[in-house]
Amino acid sequence: MASDFDDGTTARPTDAAARDALSALAADRQVLADRIRTPAWYYPLLGLATALIVGSPGPGAPVQFVMVAFGSIGIAFLSLAYQRITGLTVTRTAGPRSLAIAIVLGIVVVLLLGVSFALAATGHAPWVAASAAAACAAMWGGGVLYDRAYDRELRRGR
Prior knowledge:
This protein is mainly α.
């Protein structure tokens, strides 16, 4: 495989140059993984914001809208705070394990929201708090699990 250099010549890179480039990439991955580490307060707050949204069907109409608004605004502010602290925006998973965890978390939250609506519709609104608590725990614990998987995949290069 030929590579083009700035001086217009085409040459094969040496084994040493290839090893140096791969070592530089590995070092960059380590620095990025250290920099992108999620703060300890992030997932408890994300769990609380998620619990507000999942628990919103319980109290009914006017309070429900306020809970969804505060939960959504909380998630937006958390995202902005994370970007400001790390200086980075994460737009995708690092590999298949972190992707699987993110998908499972999304499914769990959507299912718990459905359970909340079903409980509220069948007259069991007080039990909505249990599904909200489960959503908080899932997001908190699942988020930490996601971060660990993401960190491992990023450091290994997938």
